[in-house]
Design goal:
464 residues; alpha/beta; Aspartate Aminotransferase, domain 1; Aspartate Aminotransferase, domain 2; 7-stranded mixed beta sheet; 4-stranded mixed beta sheet; 37% helix; 16% strand; binds pyridoxal-5'-phosphate
């Protein structure tokens, strides 16, 4: 048998991948065939990863917003895994049966969860957690004699997963193609990006009022009795780390209470320290009924998703005779639960949230200073989560096809990689450079990340 450790080059791995592996969100037919453009990550250490040819990179994206602790806690996680697997490798959370590790994790999460949230339903990842939120919302309304609440509200440009259900809440026609009409009827309202808005809307109070008025108009037009839930991220990832204006989340709470729908905070990216709090919504006064998490819950050391459910909802779900007819065989897997518990231990012991809190202003200053570069239109974010929105050579700030191809699709991602930084470069409607570094990053590393982005965008500005 051949394993990756016996291979010597990325070329060999690329060739094998092109023969046998289908990648996510990838033009598979054109990747890896000549061994050139498949990026093979082989090992990690601290906040760095090495490719299969031994080149080292700062992992400025923490895997895909997963590896809060970077890559050097293997011994501790291996010990937790070893202990769990020797005791119990698997048992489902199914039909009035459970195992101690999932019970302990659920209790532990209730201690750090947003106010009035005591229960957790486990799943395998983010999309499963979001679908669970939807099914719980529907079940909640049905049990209360309100089965006509069949619609969801989400925000424009948002991403909440790619399964057939969650794709309904994901606002990207390219991703929905060719999978037919959405499974769940969803209306989209504006997100909270204020870049480009001028005058009174640059003011938080006016902007918040406009957003909430728009939302209320949609609710009234649809019929409040048809809306089951609203789903939103505390800081929206798609569109570039879009932070909310003051008063926005409290305003969502007011509308949810007024019209009887559930408020779901999708914290798949923003929970577990990304914004310097256990839950990103805590920064913005969010009081959701349901919170969805995944990614950072295990710091990337095992797969897991979870849906945290408030007491208002569980009081209905847990009525005598009511059955939550939903589940995933591997939801709350003992191995993942043990890893999540150990990750929470490490985050507390090593004061990971304090590290983000201590350095977030510095990162904000470094990132905001990029605004002086001609190609940078806006810089947004919070905690260890930032994006630069790029502006191009056209009068309205857009990119001509030539500039987009030369800079956004080629020069910027290439230079970042050459300089040893993994960052996300979106080449969509609003081109972006985004970072979400491991939460263990120190000041020097954050400076290095900011320097690399500055040099790259400086060169790109000169070529605009
Ligand atoms: C906000 C948000 N929700 C849901 C998901 C789906 O998570 P998964 O890819 O684990 O299914 C993602 C994935 O990036 C996400 O960013």
């Amino acid at each position: 048998m051949t394993t990756s450790t016996t291979r010597t080059s990325s070329g060999e791995l690329s060739a094998s991948a092109s023969r046998h592996l289908l990648l996510n969100m990838t033009p598979n037919g054109s990747v890896g065939t000549d061994g050139d453009n498949l990026f093979v990550v082989q090992r990690g250490e601290g906040p760095y990863v090495d490719d299969a040819d031994g080149r080292r990179y700062i992992d400025g994206l923490s895997g895909l917003y997963c590896c809060q602790l970077g890559y050097s806690y293997a011994a501790e996680f291996a010990e937790a895994a070893d202990r769990q697997l020797r005791e119990l490798c698997f048992s489902p959370l199914w039909s009035a049966s459970a195992h101690p590790t999932a019970i302990e994790l659920a209790e532990r999460l209730s201690r750090i969860a947003p106010v009035d949230i005591e229960h957790t339903f486990f799943s395998g990842g983010g999309a499963e957690a979001v679908e669970t939120a939807w099914k719980i919302a529907r079940k909640y309304h049905a049990l209360r004699g309100d089965p006509g609440r069949t619609k969801a509200i989400a925000r424009r440009g948002a991403y909440h997963g790619l399964t057939v259900g969650t794709l309904s809440f994901t606002d990207d026609p390219g991703l929905k193609e060719p999978y037919g009409p959405p499974a769940i009827e969803t209306r989209f309202v504006s997100h909270t990006n204020r870049f480009g808005l001028s005058g009174e809307l640059a003011d938080d109070a006016a902007f918040t009022a406009r957003l909430l008025r728009e939302l209320e108009d949609v609710i009234l037009a649809e019929g409040p009795e048809t809306i089951a839930m609203l789903i939103a991220e505390p800081v929206q990832n798609r569109g570039g780390c879009i932070t909310p204006p003051e008063g926005y989340w409290p305003g969502l709470r007011t509308l949810a209470d007024r019209y009887g729908f559930l408020l779901v905070a999708d914290e798949v990216i923003t929970a577990f320290g990304r914004l310097g709090e256990w839950f990103g919504g805590d920064r913005y006064g969010a009081r959701p009924d349901i919170v969805t998490v995944a990614k950072g819950i295990t710091a990337g050391y095992a797969p897991m998703g979870a849906t945290l459910v408030g007491t208002k909802v569980t009081e209905v779900l847990n009525r005598p005779g009511a059955i939550l007819n939903h589940g995933y065989t591997f939801g709350g897997h003992p191995l993942s639960a043990a890893i999540a518990l150990r990750s929470l231990d490490i985050m507390e012991r090593d004061r990971i949230l304090d590290n983000v809190r201590a350095l977030q202003d510095h990162l904000a200053t470094r990132m905001t200073s990029l605004k002086t570069l001609p190609i940078v239109g806006d810089v947004r974010g919070a905690g260890f989560f930032y994006a630069c929105e790029l502006v191009g050579d056209l009068d309205d700030g857009g990119f001509s096809d030539t500039a987009r191809a030369a800079l956004v699709a080629d020069l910027i991602p290439r230079r970042l990689r050459e300089a040893g930084l993994l960052a996300r470069v979106y080449n969509r409607a609003a081109p972006l450079v985004q970072i979400a570094p491991p939460l263990i990053s120190d000041r020097q590393l954050l400076d290095r990340i900011a320097d690399i982005i500055a040099d790259t965008l400086d060169e790109a500005s000169a070529r605009l």
